[in-house]
Specification:
The chain is mainly alpha-helical and about 600 residues long. The protein is about 60% helix and about 5% strand. It has three domains: about 40-290, Orthogonal Bundle (Recoverin, domain 1); about 300-525, Recoverin, domain 1 (Orthogonal Bundle); about 545-610, no CATH class. One of its GO terms (molecular function) is calcium ion binding.
Length: about 600
């Protein structure tokens, strides 16, 4: 296919290039022993003029003198233009560009240097932001703790120091990566194919390592065994050194040598550990003192959702009849199985039947994240049977069977209740707004845990130490609780408390263990997979791509074509994505553009938003 040709072309280009590199290396270009008649080596290349200008622009700001402090204060006021005492990577990046243009007194020259060393900025930013704990309010502390997306004024001096350090490392990296000659100045044809590809291959290193011995970096001076050094730098043994590997190797060498640069790296590492501990402790204390918590109870939306589905969980004749009628709506093709898509569609239809198009549709969207949790819980109760064709491994574990329908509905209600409590804390209140990011940070939890004490969930009642509970919920230790972690914690607490809900979860776990044991035993006897009988019902015809996808594809596919019209359209679209004109787009910027484009294409905000 056309798509296949794209993938194949890329693979062939890589194979061809690798073959040429291997061939060139085999002919003696990888490493050769210098003969006695070899011309004298030229002196090593000092840092480039680009780096000299970069260093001259920023290095003085990292000094600990009164003059440097005054200069840093002025620079910080430019970086922190909104006066919130924090600076994002985008703000730092913009300040670097402006500072270089001003220093060089030439926009083109300053802009060129800014682009040249840009790969170093992210590493410097990440290193510096780990050092100084915020001494302001809890919001500032949480902003740093939640992912350290900003640097504070106290971290600004180290940021500048790291900018100069990583720019120096990048300068040496570029000297080798861009070279087409060996240490003696002899042109090497094979190096032309390797230059400026943002990685250093073994041949490039062996031909050029002496050129960077005067860059002021311990690991690059006095090298006696370049092969061994390359192997040490190539951490993943991929046959090449990327900029990240290069920096990590140079950092470690500086630390081991005890240089001033190495001490700076040690300071950042120790600072991160201390900062995290201080922030967690102060944040919990401050918020516990300042937050007045009032219980909210389940939302009106949850009450409506439960009213719609709880009647189907009754274990009596009326409940069985109601479930039978609803199952016939889900299992339209009468194969005794329902997929997640069919369950999702049925939930939507039942809510709309009960509450009307607008209210029912809103309830469906609001609780939709819980449906897959309920589906995955319910589908593992009945025995597994192979329902695939000769070319597929599909089993009933990919579907809900009629026997699993009542537990499925029960789990829909359980996980909707858990999601309702999650949503109240996420963003600080009921409903969905710009503050809801589908994760709960420590601040949100401490501010909101009391609001959900009436949700009839054992894990949310009688909390004495909210910080300790948060740490238990945060299973992966990343400083945030996702919906999956939230539900796992609440399930465990229901089981420990011996509630009716907990007994359901415990019974399910036991049934699954028993079923898995039987399956393992059957498989050992050769009964693991049976061929479908000839009397199996015919497969329904495949479904063509949905209308949603058709609209999505119509909105964007033309932009990927290689025509003049498509290029013009891409240029216009890029100007919308790259609103700040920095020639880069983050995931958030791309996501926002997709949403706007779909709303415009559909000429309907609701329709476009739903597809997005």
């Amino acid at each position: 296919t056309e798509m296949g040709k794209e993938f194949d072309t890329l693979a062939n280009q890589k194979d061809t290039r690798d073959t040429k590199m291997t061939s060139a290396s085999a002919k003696g270009l990888g490493k050769s022993s210098p003969s006695k008649s070899s011309p004298a080596k030229p002196p090593p290349i000092t840092p480039t003029d680009d780096f000299a200008d970069f260093d001259a622009c920023f290095s003085s700001l990292s000094q600990e003198t009164d003059e440097a402090r005054l200069s840093r204060s002025r620079s910080w006021s430019i970086v922190d233009a909104n006066g919130n005492d924090l600076a994002s990577l985008a703000e730092v990046d913009r300040w670097i560009k402006v500072a270089l243009m001003s220093h060089c007194e030439n926009k083109e020259r300053g802009g060129a240097i800014w682009r040249q060393f840009r790969p170093a900025y992210l590493r410097a930013f990440k290193r510096a932001r780990d050092v100084a704990p915020d001494e302001g309010n809890a919001k500032g502390a949480q902003a740093e703790l939640d992912g350290d997306e900003f640097i504070s004024k106290k971290e600004f001096r180290l940021l500048v120091g790291f900018l100069c350090t990583y720019a120096r490392m990048h300068d040496a990296f570029q000297v080798i990566d861009s070279s087409t000659t060996d240490d003696c100045g002899k042109a090497i044809a094979s190096l032309e194919k390797l230059q400026d590809d943002r990685r250093i291959e073994r041949q490039e290193w062996l031909c050029n390592y002496q050129k960077v011995s005067a860059h002021g970096l311990v690991a690059l001076s006095g090298i006696s065994n370049p092969e061994a050094v390359f192997d040490a730098m190539d951490a993943d043994k991929g046959g090449m050194v990327l900029f990240g590997e290069w920096c990590r190797f140079l950092e470690e060498s500086e630390v081991n040598a005890g240089t001033d640069m190495g001490k700076m790296f040690i300071s950042a590492t120790e600072g991160k550990k201390k900062k995290t501990a201080i922030l967690r402790q102060s944040l919990a204390q401050d918020l516990t003192m300042e937050v007045e918590i009032s219980a909210m109870g389940p939302t009106e939306e949850l009450e409506k959702f439960l009213a719609c589905f709880e009647e189907l969980t009754a274990q009596n004749q009326e409940g069985r009849e109601a479930r039978g009628a609803e199952w016939s709506l889900i299992d339209a093709n009468a194969n005794g199985l329902a997929s997640l898509a069919e369950v999702d569609g049925w939930v939507s239809q039942r809510l709309v039947r009960s509450f009307g198009e607008e209210v029912g549709g809103n309830l469906w969207r609001l609780f939709r994240p819980s449906f897959i949790l309920a589906f995955n819980r319910g589908k593992i109760l009945a025995p597994t049977i192979d329902v695939g064709s000769a070319n597929t491994d599909t089993t009933t574990d990919d579907y809900i069977s009629k026997a699993e329908f009542r537990p499925l509905v029960a789990y829909l209600c359980v996980y909707a209740r858990m999601l309702d409590a999650f949503s109240i804390i996420d963003g600080g209140g009921a409903g969905v707004d710009a503050n809801d990011d589908r994760r709960i940070e420590l601040r949100e939890w401490i501010e909101g845990y009391g609001k959900v004490a009436s949700h009839d969930l054992a894990g949310l009642v009688g909390i004495v130490d909210p910080q300790e509970v948060f740490m238990e919920m945060d299973a992966d230790g990343k400083g945030m609780v996702l919906l999956g972690e939230w539900c796992q914690y609440l399930e465990k607490k229901e089981v420990e408390a011996g509630t009716e809900m907990g007994k359901e979860f415990d019974t399910l776990a036991n049934q699954k263990d028993t079923r898995d044991t039987k399956m393992t035993s059957a498989s050992a006897k050769g009964l693991g997979k049976s061929s479908p009988s000839k009397s199996s019902p015919a497969k329904p015809p495949p479904i063509t791509p949905t209308d949603d996808f058709a609209d999505f594809d119509a909105c964007f596919s033309s932009l990927s074509q290689e025509t003049d019209e498509a290029r013009l359209s891409r240029s216009r679209s890029w100007s919308i994505v790259d609103a700040n004109g920095n020639d880069l787009a983050s995931l958030a910027e791309v996501d926002r553009w997709i949403k706007v484009a779909l709303m415009s294409h559909c000429e309907n905000k609701e329709r476009g938003g739903a597809i997005w």
